[in-house]
């Protein structure tokens, strides 16, 4: 896989927690950000494939939105374990989590992916806790992924999966204008650290309240392609309001200096993991008074840009 690696020099977790505290406190009636020893994230309500988020912490951005817009590039198919190898992760143990596009070539339709895997024994013994969200017969369907594949684009946080210090955040009762807690975090880090790249990955639970998500439907017919603008793309997506609890896996960056890497600055996918057909790409809460979050994040020491598209169309997508 075409891979570029960048060594990062991130601030300490204490500095990151301090940068997040004031913005969260201004946006929520109650908010705390502190450095703690990571609990066992394999347990409810998080259900991660690894116990923690520590050890050889890395982040990757694979593919990108240009693989979807203006015309889906269906040849862009990847495997999570192949990505782990490209990230130079230990074959003896580790895990990946994040947000991306699902294996349409396996499930038979386009879908959202909530990647959550662990491995040991030379990548041979893999635990697949990955979920996918799709539109099936016109309705949302959220279920375990039958595959370790993904497609088009994916953002991943990887580590040895060990316990260790992490940033814990809690927030409830939104009083500010920012509906997305991860977009708020991304903006806070950008404001605090400027062009210094700070890349976080982790998990949070929407414990209470209703939030907005989108799920990509199947690819449009060829006569409706290419997507001509962001409005057409957004009209193609399906939007849903789902009740908590929902588990969300997230990757975010404070900066892409010079926009040279074509990074997706924030990407969060979620699944209910309790049998309900609830999940997709997280946008933020819709009833701020009721919303409540609890999350755990760690910072990457290395960034991997993998299979970068030749053309980056992020500006065109979001204008």
Structural features, described:
It holds the Pfam family DUF1907. InterPro entries: C11orf54_DUF1907. One of its GO terms (molecular function) is hydrolase activity, acting on ester bonds. This protein has a single domain (3-318), classed as Hypothetical protein, similar to alpha- acetolactate decarboxylase, domain 2 (60s Ribosomal Protein L30, Chain: A, 2-Layer Sandwich). It has six helices and 20 strands. It has helices spanning 13-27, 80-86, 104-107, 181-193, 230-236, 314-318; strands at residues 3-7, 28-37, 58-63, 77-79, 93-101, 112-114, 116-120, 125-128, 131-136, 139-144, 149-159, 165-174, 199-208, 210-215, 238-243, 246-253, 266-271, 279-285, 292-299, 302-306. Strands 1, 3, 4, 5, 6, 7, 8, 9, 10, 11 and 20 form an eleven-stranded mixed beta sheet that branches. A nine-stranded antiparallel beta sheet has the order 2-12-19-13-16-17-18-14-15. The protein is globular and about 50 Å long. The two termini are 31 Å apart.
- Mean pLDDT figure: 95
Number of E-type strands: 20
Strand fraction equals 35-45%
Give the CATH class: Alpha Beta
Total individual domains:
1
Shape: globular
Query: For this structure, what is the CATH homologous superfamily?
Result: Hypothetical protein, similar to alpha- acetolactate decarboxylase, domain 2
The unreliable regions are: 313-319
**How much helix is in the residues?**
10-25%
Rg result: 18 Å
Sheet having the most strands: 11 strands, mixed
- The ordered string of helix (H) and strand (E) elements is EHEEEHEHEEEEEEEHEEHEEEEEEH
| CATH architecture descriptor | 2-Layer Sandwich
- For the termini, the CA-CA separation is 31 Å
Computed structural class: alpha+beta
User: Would you give the CATH topology?
Assistant: 60s Ribosomal Protein L30, Chain: A
Total DSSP helices: 6
| Assembly state | single chain
């Amino acid at each position: 896989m075409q891979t570029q690696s960048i060594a990062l020099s991130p601030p300490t977790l204490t500095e990151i927690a301090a940068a997040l505290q004031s913005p969260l406190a201004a946006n929520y009636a109650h908010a705390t950000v502190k450095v703690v020893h990571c609990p066992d994230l394999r347990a409810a309500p998080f259900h991660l494939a690894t116990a923690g988020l520590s050890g050889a912490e890395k982040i990757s951005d694979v593919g990108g939105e240009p693989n979807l817009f203006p015309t889906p590039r269906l040849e862009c198919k990847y495997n999570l374990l192949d990505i782990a190898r490209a990230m130079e992760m230990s074959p003896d143990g580790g895990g990946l989590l994040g947000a991306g596009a699902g294996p349409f070539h396996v499930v038979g339709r386009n879908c959202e992916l909530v990647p959550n895997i662990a491995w040991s024994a030379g990548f041979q013994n893999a635990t697949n806790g990955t979920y996918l969200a799709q539109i099936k017969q016109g309705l949302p369907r959220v279920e375990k992924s039958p595959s370790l594949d993904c497609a088009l684009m994916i953002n991943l946080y990887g580590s040895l999966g060990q316990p260790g210090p992490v940033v814990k955040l809690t927030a409830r009762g939104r009083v500010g204008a920012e509906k997305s807690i991860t977009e708020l975090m991304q903006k806070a880090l950008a404001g605090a650290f400027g062009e210094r790249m700070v890349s976080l990955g982790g998990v949070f639970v929407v414990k209470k309240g209703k939030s907005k998500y989108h799920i990509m439907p199947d690819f449009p017919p060829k006569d409706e392609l290419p997507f001509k603008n962001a409005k057409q793309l957004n009209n193609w997506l399906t939007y849903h309001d789902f009740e908590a609890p929902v588990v969300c896996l997230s990757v975010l960056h404070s900066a892409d200096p010079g926009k040279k890497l074509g990074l997706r600055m924030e990407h969060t996918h979620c699944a209910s993991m309790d049998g309900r057909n609830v999940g997709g790409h997280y946008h933020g809460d819709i009833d701020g008074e009721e919303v409540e979050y609890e999350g755990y994040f760690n910072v990457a020491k290395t960034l991997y840009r993998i299979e970068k598209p030749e053309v980056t169309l992020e500006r065109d997508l979001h204008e």
